[in-house]
Amino acid sequence: MTMPPPVGRVVLGAVLALAATWACSDGGTDPPTPVPTSVTLNKTSVVLNAIGATDQLTAMVRDQSGNTMSASVTWSSSAGGIASVNTSGLVTAVSNGSAQITATAGSATGNAGVTVAQASAAVTKVSGDAQSATVGQALTADLVSQVNDSRGNAIQGVTVNFAVSADGGSVTPASGTTDASGQVSTQWTFGTTAGMHTVTATPGTGTGSADFTATADADVADSIAAVSGDLQSGLVNTALPSPLVVEILDQYGNGVAGESVTFSTTDGSVSPTDVTTGANGETQTTWTLGATQGAQAAQASAAGLKGDPVTFTATGTTLSVSSVSPDTVVEGSTATITGTGFDPTPANNTVTVEGVTATVTAATATSLDVTVPSFDCQPARDVDVEVTVGASTSNTLSHPLKAPSAVALAVGEMMMVEDPADFCLQFTPSTAGNDEYVVGVGAAAELPTSFLDVTMTAVQGASPSGPALAPSIARRAGSGGAAFARTAVQERLAAHYAAEQRVREWERQYLDPATNPSLRVATARSPAASMAPPNEGDTVHLHVPDIDGNACDSIPIDAVVKKVGAAGIFVTDLNNPPDDTLTDTEIQAYSDTFDVNIYDVDTTYFGPPTDLDANQRVFVVLTIEVNKLLGGSIAGFVFSGDLIAPASCATSDQGELFYGHVPDPSNTAGTVGRSKAQVLFQMPSLIAHEFTHNIQFSRRLGSAGMSRWEAEGQATFAEEVVGHSILGNSPGMDYGAATALSGGGTSWYRGSFRALANYYGWDGGSGRNINAPEECTLFGTG
């Protein structure tokens, strides 16, 4: 008989089970297990312009709660034949086209589109260079060019244009498309001009070009003609001063080399008689006249050619000039010319001094007295003296001439010149060649607003040279003028220029090939690598020169590309202070000013810079590291070590760079705090100034650098002329203090005023150098 279980035991078991459940619970809900829910890539699109080029993708995985999580990521490509991807997300270009890269974590995915489009980076010559042919003929071999991307891979389908130098003929076709091997060819037919000619192959898109050269030889000899030496006059039985020169030409007027010419005369003699034409088709002889006074003749013959023979005529005379006295003739005074063949009647002799007719006051057959003509404020120099009698002209004799009076002041002596008739100042040449004079121009006026135009022109005389004066134009007020008070802006500017002088001095000591010959090899002109400009938003790794110590020591930074303009690549240091930082709009404005005004004006005056990093732009690196340098006294600088191979200067980025300061109102740099307003005010003129240094340094690669005063003088001048461009002003005008020292003018002209103020005695503070300007210079001393 089966008995039912005791009721009491069943209830107790249930209670114990419930108690056990309560004892194991904390009263909440267990968190869910993280599951990959989304995958975000650092880039949604990638563009690769060379086969083998790479770009790194990274993936961020988030769970269902939106939190980042660690998860295994699998990478794949939708078209591995176009773009491949490895297990770490490195994308590699395989062929032209488009593909999609997918990163997978669990069931979540993230995608990035990849475009592979090869871009021309180099055009090379395959064959057809350095040929020669006769003018009007086609070259034997075609010109073959090769177009490659930046990694040396051939590019198919690129249009290449062929341009022929002036008078070089024509090419067929004038443009073509590269084949599967990246090659394209054309045939070159010469025109009718002999000499070296060039055909330049340039891709329709991308960069690079190649120059083919060839020599066009002259056609067969066709004619003979006189070049020079005809219609001379000279002493009988004496060689003429100039040779007889003829040329042999082909049918197109090109000189023909290696042709025989025979010179002959029955009046005197010629030497040599039998000659051969040189590379330009010319040849010559010397003609010694016979004893006949009057017309004499000589011939040049090349049998069978048009124009044969060529006849030269000359006039034999006894007229000659042997000497002039005194040793130095003076304008307006009497001089005596000694020689032979003069006419005893003064009026029958024509004497010229530097082409100006002198008055003959007395004459014999062997002597002429003349009054030396006066010239319009010309320096002491050697002049040509000639005598003409009838149809005969004498030999030319060079003789010293000077003005009636000259300035000769002792050191420290001053002379006032008030009569406009005396405004021509003649300075006595110094045998040492080191005399210096300060010339000041002033004008009295009743009102401060009255201005008078003043032009000062200097002409260099004969050696030994006097003071070297450059022509200048200035306008000076009659009285009054704006006060040049010391301001915070001027204090910062003075400190910046002093700091920049220290950088130039360091470069002269360590980087000038004149003092460090080993750098001549290091300053190679060819780019270190061909590379396209970065994209906006890219991160680049750069090196800031440590100009507090050894500038070839590196201060590495990572910077983001903010703007890629036509002239500059603006990047900002990722470690720049976040407060009061430059906005994208403000950087865009600087880039526009660089593109539209600064680049055009600077390159017009000083020429373009090199392009060592092959991006056709200058990096403008805005970094807090500049704020830290030289005690915070420098606002920006260009370092010529960036143009040297890194093997010689480790900090070199081997390109054209400018380093500029950034706003730092909280002074995180630990030197001098800088507001955004200060940086914004100084940046445009700073770029104009420093870009001039980019040009100066790069155009002198491998040779001695510029003196500090010359480099800084040009860069300060660049600020002024760029300011003219931006403000709509013109050089050489007198706009007054309202334009120069207020409004937009303070941004562009203050550098010139600072230099002039220092030159005339401002010591950078509240004092004055008592010996100014004798012991001051505008732009440094070295």
Structural commentary:
By secondary structure, this protein is an alpha+beta fold. 17% of the residues lie in helices and 31% in strands. Strands 28, 29, 30, 31, 32, 33, 34, 35 and 36 form a 9-stranded mixed beta sheet that branches. It has a 6-stranded mixed beta sheet with strand order 39-40-41-42-44-43. The protein has a 5-stranded mixed beta sheet with strand order 11-18-17-13-15, with no helix packed on it. Helix 4 (584-606) packs parallel to helix 6. The longest helix is centred in the middle third of the chain and has 23 residues, at 488-510. The termini are far apart. 33% of the residues are buried. Mean pLDDT is 85; it is low at 1-26, 464-486 and 520-530.
Concise synopsis of the structure shown:
Helix 4 (584-606) packs across helix 7 and helix 6 (676-698) packs across helix 7. It contains ten helices and 44 strands.
- State the share of residues found in helices, binned by percent: 10-25%
Distance between the termini: 125 Å
The helix tally amounts to 10
Alpha-beta classification: alpha+beta
The tally of beta strands, per DSSP, is 44
Molecular shape: flat
Instruction: Identify low-pLDDT runs.
Output: 1-26, 464-486, 520-530
Which strand-content bin applies to the residues?
25-35%
The rounded Rg comes to: 41 Å
What is the overall pLDDT average? 85
The profile of the biggest β sheet is: 9 strands, mixed
